Amino acid sequence: MSTAMMNEATAETASPSRSVRALGALNFFLADVRDGLGPFLGVFLIGQGWSAATIGYVMTVGGIAGMLATTPLGALADATRAKRAMVAVCAVLAILASLLILFVPTVPMVAASQIATGIAGAAIGPAIAALTLGLVGQAGLAFQLGRNEAWNHGGNVVAAALSGLFGYWYGLPAVFVLMTIMAVGSLVALALIRPSDIDHEVARGLETGSQEKGSAPEGLKTLLRNRRLLVLAACLMMFHLGNGGLLPLLGLRVASDGSVDPAAYTAATIIIAQLTMIPLALVASRIARARGYFLVLLAALVALPIRGLIAGLWGDLYSLVPVQVLDGVGAGLLGVAVPGLVAQIMRGTGRVNVAFGAVMTVQGIGASLSPSVGGYIASTFGYSTAFVTLGLFAVPALCLWIVCGAMFAKPDGDGRRERETSGGETASL
């Protein structure tokens, strides 16, 4: 039996089945919650008379709030045993934020809702990563990350399809109602995860049955001393500086010219991408177990410049298909690679989730600036220039990742880790 098959079998047999199934359902329902209204927000606000630049600025405010909150919330996910409660609070906060936008679509209220949504999204990422690691451990992580992402993207497909239909039949306010229903579903799934099935020390990166278990976590300075973690964060920041504004701009371009129904078009952009992400996430988990995460992230970085060029140079309605297929390639691969790489890099430190939060904070700098940058370029030079420019932001990230590739080109399934110590040495554990 191959190593990948043995790891897969271990992941399926060593984990409490009901809680793992509930984790899949949780990822399904959170798909429409963790990112808020996403591109539907821009379409809704265009209908309220907002400009593309103003929409971009409001989205940036929410992105900055999430960016600032992610690292401390990652530390909370490491420290607390109330990981399920973290997710529950985020789901309720997302419901309240979406209703605020629907009933009071003013600049201050929408900005406040985006701040709340940004903080909720910042907490959900590390909390789900901690729950996953605590339920399946390092040996089953790559396999389970693929399943998590497949469930998450499946939830996005269903939510986007229903949003498109309900938005077409009843108007965009129906999208807000659907998001509330999905949030309630996430609370039900969360309740089915048994607290006793979560190993909270493993959830923060300490090892079951090793001398590390029960020992004190390393200091937070380990985040700044780990070169692999810093390289990963820098690459993701540049990637998201280009990626974050592309999908909202697609919706804004259609809403501005009135050529097709904006709700249906926005739903189509999401569905095409998410249908691509489902198989890509499963393939990425297999590649990660067999050959490591380096190739997975490399492919994600390559997809963005090509996507920006197609959106900018082709630019008609039919370009939607390849543009969003490539979006699915990038997001499907990153969803597996990023938490897996962080867990691999920080294994044994007891700081996995705060490191994941720190990486999300750095990539959030790019993601929060992207809508404003894209909106400004679109308003000043046109949508085509904006798409091409955003796509090219990933090129420096791609170059950095290739240059530093030897630091990451190890499979995750061998149970070993290399990390920098405070003295700059590399130690194998």
Describe the overall structure.
The structure is a single chain. With 429 residues, the chain is an all-alpha fold. It has a single domain (13-201, 218-428), classed as MFS general substrate transporter like domains (Growth Hormone, Chain: A, Up-down Bundle), CATH 1.20.1250.20. The chain has helices spanning 3-13, 17-30, 39-47, 52-79, 83-103, 107-136, 141-170, 173-191, 200-203, 221-225, 227-243, 246-257, 262-291, 294-313, 320-345, 352-381, 383-392, 394-403; strands spanning 418-420, 426-428. A two-stranded antiparallel sheet has the order 1-2. Strand 1 and strand 2 form a beta hairpin. The model is unreliable at 1-15, 209-214 and 411-429 (pLDDT under 50).
Topology (elements, then pairings):
Layout: H1 3-13, H2 17-30, H3 39-47, H4 52-79, H5 83-103, H6 107-136, H7 141-170, H8 173-191, H9 200-203, H10 221-225, H11 227-243, H12 246-257, H13 262-291, H14 294-313, H15 320-345, H16 352-381, H17 383-392, H18 394-403, E1 418-420, E2 426-428
Antiparallel strand pairs: 1-2
List keywords for this structure.
MFS_dom, single chain, 2 strands, about 425 residues
Number of domains: 1
Contiguous runs where pLDDT drops below 50 for at least 5 residues? 1-15, 209-214, 411-429
Please state the average pLDDT score. 80
Placed side by side, the strands forming the largest sheet appear as 1-2
Keywords: Membrane, Transmembrane, Transmembrane helix
Transmembrane segments: 50-73, 85-107, 119-143, 150-169, 175-193, 229-251, 263-285, 292-314, 320-342, 354-377, 383-409
InterPro entries: MFS, MFS_dom, MFS_trans_sf
GO molecular function: transmembrane transporter activity
